[in-house]
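Customer escalation, tier 2.

The customer says the design service returned an amino acid string that "doesn't look like it belongs to this structure." They asked us to rerun it and document both sides in this ticket. The original C-alpha cells are below, unchanged.
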C-alpha cells in the first residue's frame, strides 16, 4: 500500500511563448484548470503507473468549501486513489498559478490554503504498518510531517520524503527515512543547512547520505538522476523526449521511486523505472493529467538504458 500525506491544489495553467521577467506582463490566449499539488500528483502518478492494478494508493489531505474541491476529488477518484482521508477545511482549496513556456520550462506560485491545516491525526493508524510506503512532501505543515514520520517508523512503515519545496529538515528525521528525494538545488540547500561543504547536486546528495545514514536520490533534469545508498551508488540517464510541460515530472519520478520501494525492487531498477515515469509525464500538459499509465511505462522501459553503478 502507498499512502500519500500531502498537498492538494487546483492548478491554473497558462501557456506562454516566454516566461515573464520581473515587472513584465505576458499575454496568452487562455488558461485551463486541472487538479494538482505535489501530494495529489504523486498519489495519481502512483495509482496510474502501478504494475499491480490492485495496489491500494491512499491520499491524506485537505480541501476547502469551494468549487475547486470537487475537481481535485474527481481527479483522485478517476485515478483510483482512495480519498477517504481527504477532509474539508474552512480555508480555500490550495491553488497554483502555473506558467509554462514554449520549451516546457515553468514558473509556479502557490496559495497553500487548506494545505496549511493538515494535521497528523488525519492519517489513520490502520494505514501504517510494514506493508505501507508513506510519501511526504514539503507543502504541508512541517511539524505534521515530522509527527507522521515518527508514527510511521514506530509501526514499521517505510518513508519517502520529497524535499520540495526545500525547507529545513531536523537531523533526527533524516535517519528515519528510507528514501530522501531532492533536486540539485534542494540537495545543496540541505547540505549547507547541515554544515556540509559539498556544493550541490550529486556531491551534496552523497554527503547528506553519508552524514545521516539515509539513501538519497537526486534528480538531475535532462542529465537523469543518481541514487546513493550506504553501500552502493547508481546513475540513470533521462528518457529521450521532446518535453511539452515539465511541471509534473518530479512528482511522477517520486511516485515511481515509491512504487519500487513498495515492490521491493532493487534500487537501480527502481531508479530506471522512476526515470521513465518522470520522462513520460513531460509529454502532456498539466501535472496530474499528464501522469502515465503502467502500459505506457512498460512500452518505454527499453528506450532508456539501465542504471549504472557509481563510485561511492
Amino acid at each position: 500500500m502507498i499512502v500519500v500525506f500531502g498537498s492538494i491544489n487546483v492548478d491554473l495553467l497558462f501557456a506562454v511563448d516566454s516566461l515573464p521577467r520581473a515587472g513584465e506582463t505576458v499575454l496568452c490566449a487562455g488558461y485551463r484548470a486541472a487538479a494538482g499539488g505535489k501530494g495529489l500528483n504523486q498519489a495519481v502518478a502512483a495509482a496510474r503507473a502501478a504494475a499491480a492494478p490492485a495496489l491500494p494508493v491512499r491520499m491524506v489531505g485537505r480541501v476547502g468549501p469551494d468549487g475547486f474541491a470537487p475537481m481535485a476529488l474527481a481527479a483522485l477518484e478517476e485515478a483510483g486513489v482512495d480519498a477517504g482521508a481527504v477532509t474539508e477545511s474552512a480555508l480555500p482549496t490550495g491553488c497554483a498559478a502555473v506558467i509554462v513556456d514554449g520549451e516546457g520550462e515553468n514558473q509556479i506560485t502557490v496559495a497553500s490554503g487548506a494545505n496549511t491545516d493538515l494535521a497528523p491525526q488525519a492519517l489513520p493508524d490502520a494505514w501504517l504498518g510494514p506493508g505501507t510506503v508513506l510519501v511526504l512532501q514539503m507543502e504541508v505543515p512541517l511539524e505534521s510531517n515530522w509527527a507522521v514520520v515518527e508514527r510511521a517508523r514506530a509501526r514499521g512503515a517505510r518513508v519517502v520524503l520529497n524535499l520540495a519545496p526545500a525547507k529545513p529538515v531536523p537531523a533526527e528525521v533524516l535517519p528515519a527515512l528510507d528514501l530522501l528525494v531532492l533536486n540539485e538545488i534542494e540537495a545543496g540547500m540541505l547540505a549547507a543547512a547541515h554544515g556540509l561543504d559539498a556544493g550541490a547536486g550529486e556531491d551534496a546528495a552523497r554527503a547528506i547520505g553519508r552524514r545521516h545514514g539515509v539513501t538519497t536520490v537526486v534528480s538531475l533534469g535532462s542529465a537523469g538522476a543518481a541514487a546513493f545508498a550506504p553501500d552502493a551508488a547508481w546513475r540513470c540517464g533521462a528518457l529521450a523526449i521532446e518535453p511539452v510541460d515539465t511541471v509534473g515530472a518530479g512528482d511522477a519520478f517520486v511516485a515511481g521511486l515509491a512504487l519500487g520501494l513498495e515492490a521491493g525492487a532493487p534500487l537501480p531498477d527502481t531508479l530506471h523505472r522512476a526515470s521513465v515515469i518522470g520522462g513520460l509525464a513531460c509529454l502532456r500538459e498539466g501535472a496530474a493529467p499528464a501522469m502515465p499509465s503502467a502500459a505506457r511505462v512498460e512500452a518505454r522501459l527499453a528506450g532508456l538504458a539501465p542504471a549504472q553503478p557509481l563510485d561511492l
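Tier 2 assessment: The sequence is consistent with the input. The CA atoms of residues 131 and 237 lie 30 Å apart. The longest strand covers residues 9-15. Sent an explanation to the customer and offered a walkthrough call.
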